[in-house]
Structures are given as structure tokens and as C-alpha cells.
Amino acid sequence: xxxxxxxxxxxxxxxxxxxxxxxxxxxxxxxxxxxxxxxxxxxxxxxxxxxxxxxxxxxxxxxxxxxxxxxxxxxxxxxxxxxxxxxxxxxxxxxxxxxxxxxxxxxxxxxxxxxxxxxxxxxxxxxxxxxxxxxxxxxxxxxxxxxxxxxxxxxxxxxxxxxxxxxxxxxxxxxxx
Length: 177
Fold this sequence. Notes:
The chain has 177 residues and is of the alpha+beta class.
């Protein structure tokens, strides 16, 4: 990893609090990954506790529904991160992460992060940014669920999808019309 990676990281909210020198010193804690389109990074139920930051490409987070089909929870792109729930809670993955195109990522393993939290200000800053990202996602889901429960008409026009396929509901135009 190099200065270009450090420059990229400095523009993400996860590293906005850190100086360029601090970021460059932190880089060896990451592993670089390059994946082709359609590759699975981890699967629902895996014990993997790493956190991932997308430097190029995109990733879809999927979850199995009761009907056996996969439901899209999120589609994430450059500068976005995922995996913080398993990293922080040390619980199995709630979904499957699959690349939508050729994708490059930085991986921070759970054990590495735990060691860094003991005495690294950047790790504490990343933790703070993860908490803010989780809060924003929870707030967004709360508004979506509130809109769904208040929309009496939803039952009549809702596409035949599983309960977690929020993207299908959005694509159907039910939430943003």
C-alpha cells in the first residue's frame, strides 16, 4: 500500500480525523484484496469478524429469506465499508457479501482491530465512524419501516418479495413517490 491509498483513506469519514502521517503508519494493519465480479467475500453465518473498506468497485450484501431466495440488504461502492456488526459484536455474519464487479478492498481483521483499540487513536476514530455509520443505517431503516407500516395501500401494491427486500420496495417506487 502506498501514498495513493493513504490519500484515498484521508477522504473517507473513517479516517477524516487522522493526519496523513498517521494514516500511512496505520496502513500495514490492512490487507489488500482484489476480487473478480461475482466472487463471495463471506457468507451468511460465517464466523469471520473482519471489516472491509471498498477502494474500487462495488459489493452487494444479501440475506436469505424464509422463501429460500436472497434479499438485497445493501449495495455499497467506493469509500463505503461493511462488516462492522461482526467486528464489534463478534457474532456470525448476518448476510453474504458478493462483488458486483471487479472490486478492490482493504481488510482489517478482528484480532488486529482489538489490539489496536488498546492504544491507537486511529482505531478509536474508526470505531467512532463505524458507530455513526451504524446509527445512520438504523435511522434510515427506522424511517423506511415507519413509512411501510403507515402506508395502508402497501399491501395492495407491494411486489411479491420477502420481508427484507427493501430495495425491491424502493425500486417499485413505494417509498419515494
